[in-house]
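User: For my dataset I need records formatted as: sequence, then structure tokens, nothing else. Please produce one.
Assistant:
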Amino acid sequence: MADTKKRSEGSSPGMAFERPIQELEDKLSELEAISLRTNMDLASEVEALRRRLSETIETTYAGLSAWQRVCVARHDKRPTALDFIEKMLDEFVELHGDKVFGDDKAIVTGLARCGERRFLLVAHRKGRTTKERMAYNFGCAHPEGYRKALRKMRLAEKLGLPIVCLVNTPGAYPGIGAEERGQAAAIAENILQMFSIRVPIVVVVIGEGGSGGALGIGVGDRVYMMEHAYYSVISPEGCAAILWKDGEKTPDAAEALKLTAPDLLDLGIVDGVVPEPAGGAHRAPLVAMAQVRRQVLEALDELESIPPNRLIEERRVKFRRIGEIPGRFPVVS
């Protein structure tokens, strides 16, 4: 019963494509409840329904559109940075403040340990409940958040610790106060300085990767995306509003933006895709986080032997190639 309840909680009323899955989960839950209540032997019926549910999940998620993947990336039960800190890390000591203005809770930084591997963690923090999301500004960082992140990265560089960044934001906060305190400059400074940090940087987009808000902690030697995350210069809704002035064009905008993990892997913007459990990370968060942990540790093992000067040069060339037009503007290394 408990497992069935968890599966049912995995579906979101905001994702219409999951309704057939939700219906099967409800039927399965009801059948298991009847079996327990009446002591009837319904094992064969339950097993058949479980197989049908598994097949439906696999078929549904194999054919997701770009917009449907965006919906999955925004699922309210998808693992967030706080889940990764609690479940993926063996030790974590949070570091606060930018020493200029304040401590932006939308970005969390701290000294972390996974097994024997120590590193600095920098992550967008969204929260789970309404109260938490408001406290963390829905993952939309202010300039002091990006300045905090950069200060801690420079500290990691001094300590010889690699850096792991978990990206999950719809974008940087666009309010008047943030602009007055230098939002654009803070993001630009982070992007510039991350190209010169002399320790390995591993970036994983775990949910939303929105615009400059994501890029502010998104420059790395290895950049990965979870299977149903998205990474884009603008949200599909924003793109539809600008290009068509029509919210109903949002799914079309998502397709045109090429924002899914397979698209970005083909374009050479990300280095790999971290697979998610069948039906998305929200259905089996622990499995999904274990996959991310494995990928991060593998990347850190690979990068630790590369000399700092070569690390920086390869990082710069990697990002220059993203804007390369074959046969016209070759990258100069």
